[in-house]
Amino acid sequence: MKTLNNKISESLENYLRAVYILHIDGKIPRIKDISKMLEVRDASTVEAIKKLELMEYVFHEKYGYINLTEKGLNSAERVYRKYITLVDFFVNILNLSKEESYKLACGIEHHMTEDFFLSLEALMIFLKKNTIEYKKIQSFIKKYKKELPHVFRTTLDEIEIGEEAKILSVSGTQVEKEKIFKAGITPGLLVIVKSKTEETIEVDINSKTNFISMENSKLIIVE
Fold first, then answer.
1. Which range of residues forms the domain containing residue 174?
2. Which of 38, 171, 178, 208 could form a disulfide with 150 if both were Cys (CB 3.0 to 4.6 A apart)?
3. Residues 6+ apart with CB under 8 A from 160
4. Which of 119, 146, 173 is the last residue of a domain?
């Protein structure tokens, strides 16, 4: 059999993974099964399987089943490990939906370096072996999504008199943000806190004095 370059494309990795998933699910892969899984036309699947067969990753019985070769099985297992590790991370750590996680993993897995993959895999193993930390990070991320970002970040009201800070972003509702922006407060500016009262904060921005309400200062994220 004539073989092509062993380098497999992102698209072909998707087909290889699909064949593997059907195998481990106890199904015998056919063109129509792969097409359905990847949501592509049968013609596209036929073309991809032909390429994988030329590269000796699969053996396709004419008009029949598709089997992985030993080479194909080794590669497919590797591709699947990357995919499932990403899905695991997205669903169980980032609390994303399974549907969103599948789509993200399908796009990202092809660009993972070996170092990144092993580091992520190690992180997931560590977290699952250390259930306290695992639950803490899950809980924190869920809470972070529900709360506004400024709840967990340093805000302008926390900066001491005489200290300088850089504005990173502005949180709050759209109305609150627009009010702050109109006051001349935008990301990237350096501010120096000159004085504070219970109601306002006096800051120096580009050698100009500006007064910000204490309420709004709690929405201005700084570093």
1. 156-222
2. 171
3. 193
4. 146
